[in-house]
Amino acid sequence: MLRRTFLGMLGTTCVGASIPGIASASKDFKGHPGSNGVLFDATRCIGCRKCEEACNKVNDLPAPDKKYDDLSVLDTKRRTDAKTLTVVNKYKADKGPLFRKSQCNHCLEPACASACFVKAFKKLPNGAVVYDETVCVGCRYCMVACPFSIPAYEYDEPLTPRVMKCTMCAPRLAEGKLPGCVESCPKEALVYGERDELIKIARNRIERNPDRYVDHLYGEKEMGGTSWLYLSGVPFTEIGMREDLGTKSAPELTAGALASVPMVAGLWPVLLGGIYAISKRKDKVAAEEKKDAVANAIAKASEQAEKTLSEALSKADVANKRQIEVEVKKAVEEALTPKEEESDENSEGES
Amino acid sequence: MSNPGNPGSKSNLTAFNVIAGAIIVMGLVITVLRFTKGLGAVTNLDDNNPWGLWIGFDLLCGVALAAGGYTTSAACYIFGLKRFHSAVRPAILTAFLGYALVVFALQYDLGRPWRLPYPIFVQQGTTSLLFEVGLCVMLYLTVLFIEFTPAMFEWLGMKKIRSVVVKLTLALTIFGVVLSTLHQSSLGALYTIAPSKLHPLWYSTYLPVFFFVSSIAAGLSMVIFEGTLSHKKLHHMMDEEYLKHHDGVVLGFGKAASLVLFGYFAIKMIGLAYGNNWHYLASGYGLWFMVEMLGFVALPCFLYAVGVREKNLGLIKKAAIITVLGIVLNRFNVSLVAFNYHLPSSERYFPTMMEIGISVFVVTLGVVIFRFITTRMPIFHEHPDYKGEH
Ligand code: SF4
Ligand code: SF4
User: Fold this and answer.
1) Which of A230, A246, B141, B343 maximizes the CB count within 10 A of its CB?
2) Minimal CA–CA distance to B125: which of A136, A31, A128?
3) Which residues have a Cβ under 8 Å from the Cβ of B258 and sit 6 or more positions away?
4) Are A58 and A167 spatial neighbours (Cβ–Cβ below 8 Å)?
């Protein structure tokens, strides 16, 4: 990597230029204009598993344990996994069994993408959220982050595990084809189109058949909105969908924590430096006071020494002179010892 | 386990060495399995539970318990509490080893570990809190290494370079505190992206603050706890300077820990009130939450306070152990117990013996390396050439 890139990045995370990054996580992003999606109508789904079969085929996935026409599979609850990018589950209701397909919802502001620390996920302008295995580190934070528990992982792959999830058939879309599941659905429970159009179609269906549908278009607002939309005749919790996810998008959930990064990086050193200066100043004042005290002591001591000297001199005769010198030396030494000791301590205090 | 036939030199066959050796062999066997058969063969991780013990313990607890490094050096060099000086080196060494082992242990959990530098050098996912964790841990590991080198240079007798590094102390300390603040808190922030998966009693937009504040308590307690352990086992390596200050360090850190725990308890309650989650207290999770808050936050806070007032070192050390356990409990609760609380029990995660084995292996490695270094380098004692010149 270029040195400049690295420094720029350091700056982004640690100094505070990351404001633009945060701004892009703003509330107002509503997906790419004109992006596409799929509308799933649970009142039309008959649980035939044709979509599963098509998905398996167009994505070249390994053969399933049981054939796709074996509907006994529906009796146990399943989730997407590394070999199955979409599943249909059966739910019991008063009116008889209901079916619901699940796969990646291709969120407008995907949690997986905002969580990935190598940007392995990308929301394409056409609405699909795609994954790039050539950069994935395999941390699985995307799986932790996805509110719909969609991404799966190749746990048995020792060296090259991938995160597996529906791509909305992005490669097929690029060729102008429909997603595999949509194309194969015999009951038109799946409709592919521009998301805004799908919302209109869904509203229309609810309006014309208020008895058939609950008045809720799942995915319009959930987690900031998803490209995949759902209609149902019963409350969504009854067909295994969480209604407590809220309307905040994933980037909004983490925006606060991210925004505090530049604050910490900017403020902490200043605060800590301030504290350091104060504690240093305390030391300095203490040291100065000590110095004054030492100087006083020395002054006093030498005064005394002088006094002793003159007294001694006045008393002494020549014969005693040598002894006096000894006395004086001793007195001066005594006076200076505390000073040395203290200045020793002083220098120990510095670091 | 002395060897009577060989007086003068101690046998290598001590109980410690035998057990540590056995654990290391076991660790190596699991390592081979992990990298030949895949994560699925050695762990209970699955699509619903992508993060298990290796993240919950090795990463989250490892980082929190290594917080002694920044708390101690900040106390000594920034707050000017010189009497804690003797505790700095052991704390820095522990922190450095702790972080190094965190990164080492992460290699097991990552699907493609050799790509760990990718988020920094290939493509930067700056919207990810994990990116922040990664970058800060990398930088902090470097800082810790530099902070540790003086001991090494003294051991090797490299005076010039040592004095250069010593001059950087303050800058390194401040940088270290900034980085620690950031990644300690962003470990908590990792979970803010999944409000629908973490139980409301543990989920909070304040998670980053909780993680940061509790890491201070963890760091202080670890310094006390470890000092006590080392005191028993490595007494002969400690000089008078270290021993003279030891009790003072324990008292001072105990006092600080008591205050921090008090503050932590208070902000946890504020978080609870802010989310208006009181009604959850009456559930099973509520009971568990109370155990954590009362038994592992309020209790050690109280014990610390009493211990400090009565100058009862024994009590302080007990409080330290409870706090350390409490941090582990909290990180487990956030990452494992309260995570995925909405799933039926059949879909919940429990680690395999092999996952536990790797965690034990990593901790053992840490202890072995710690012993190796402290019995050779001037950690618990001052090097004779550099006495009194910090
Ligand atoms: S449903 Fe999950 S995997 Fe799909 S785009 Fe949304 S967050 Fe990503
Ligand atoms: S597992 Fe791969 S795709 Fe998922 S967050 Fe980690 S690096 Fe990104």
Assistant:
1) A230
2) A136
3) B301, B304, B305, B308, B319
4) no
Give the Cα separation of B134 and A117 in Å (integer): 9
Could you report the per-residue pLDDT of A72-81, keeping only the tens digit for each?
888 889 999 9
CA distance A265 to B289: 33
Look at residue A9 and tell me whether its pLDDT is greater than 50: no
Whole-Å CA distances, B177 to A310, B74, B146, B213? 62, 7, 14, 13
Q: Which residue of A has its CA nearest to B107?
A: A139
Beta bridge partners of B346: none
The dihedral sign for the CA sequence A333, A335, A341, A346: negative
Residue whose CA is at the smallest distance from ligand 1 atom 2 = A146
Give the Cβ contact number of residue A156 at 10 Å. Answer: 12
For residue A305, give the H/E element and its range.
helix A250-315
CB atoms A261 and B132 under 8 Å: yes
Q: Provide ipTM, 2 decimals.
A: 0.89
Interface check B35 vs A, CB under 8 A: yes
Q: Cβ of B337: how many Cβ atoms within 10 Å?
A: 19
Question: Beta A87-91 vs A163-164: how paired, if at all?
Answer: unpaired
Q: Which residues contact B334 (CB under 8 A, 6 or more apart)?
A: B60, B188, B191, B198, B202, B207
**Burial label, B257 (beta-carbon count in 10 A; 0-12, 13-18, 19+):** buried
End-to-end CA distance of chain B: 40
A197-218 burial: b if 16+ Cβ within 10 Å, else e: ebbeebeebbeeeeeebbebbb
Asked if the model's pLDDT at residue A93 lies above 60, the reply is: yes
Identify the pLDDT of residue B388: 55
Does residue B196 sit in helix, strand or coil?
coil
Q: Which regions of B163-301 does DSSP assign to beta strands (E)?
A: none
Record the tokens describing residue A133, joined without a space. 């295995």
> Is A102 in a helix, a strand, or coil?
strand
B63, pLDDT greater than 90: yes
CA distance B17 to chain A (A): 32
The identity of residue B333, as a single letter, is N
Give the separation between CA B310 and CA B304, rounded to whole angstroms.
10
Partner-chain contact B111 A279, CB within 8 Å = no
pLDDT at A19 exceeding the cut of 60: no
Instruction: List the structure tokens of A116.
Output: 């990935």
Give the tens place of pLDDT for each residue, A239-292.
999 999 988 998 999 988 888 888 888 888 888 888 888 888 877 888 888 888
Position A20 pLDDT exceeds 70: no
CA of B28 to nearest chain A CA: how many angstroms apart? 16
Lowest mean pLDDT among A46-55, A221-230, A253-262, B290-299: A253-262
Query: CA angle, corner A335, sides to A332 and A337, nearest 5?
Result: 105
- Set of chain A residues whose Cβ sits within 8 Å of the Cβ of B182: 14, 261, 264-265
What pLDDT is attached to residue A315? 67
Closest approach atom of ligand 2 to CA B111? 1
d(CA A346, CA B5): 53
**Distance in angstroms (rounded) separating the CA atoms of residues A183 and B181:** 52
Which amino acid makes up residue A8?
A: G
Contact A232, A206 (CB under 8 A): no
Contact check, Cβ <8 Å, A161/B126: no
CB A53 within 8 A of CB A86: no
Task: Confirm if B112 and A157 have CB atoms less than 8 A apart.
Answer: no
Q: Which positions ≥6 away from B15 have C-beta within 8 Å?
A: B1
Report the residue among A35, A104, A136 best suited for mutation to probe ligand 1: largest number of ligand atoms under 8 A from its CB: A104
CB contact under 8 A, A117 and B46: no
Token pair, residue A78, equals 């399943």
Distance CA A284, CA A105 (A): 64
